[in-house]
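Worked example

This section walks through a single chain of length 85. The input is the sequence exactly as stored; nothing has been trimmed or padded.
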Amino acid sequence: MRKIKLNYFPNDSNWVGGTIEDLEFEAKVFDEPSKYGIYGGKVSKLSIDGIANYDRGWEFGEDEPFVKDVVEFLEDSTKRFGGGF
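Given that input, the structure is written out below as tokens.
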């Protein structure tokens, strides 16, 4: 897996942001999987520095190699609402 770093992961919002290698990403991550999530998971929106964009469906970049790594990383994140990070 590539080096991924979170820059923000607030307890009062579903929006998170970070970097993978030298690319910035922003995502909307929920505590539970959804039919709107990527691959039916917790990530309902994802933008990676203009190479991939998902907003309840792929706009572009689904096959970009960074996507899988970021999604797996975010899917493994701790619950925030009623949980903690």
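What to look for: The beta strands are 4-8, 15-20, 23-29, 43-48, 52-55, 58-60.
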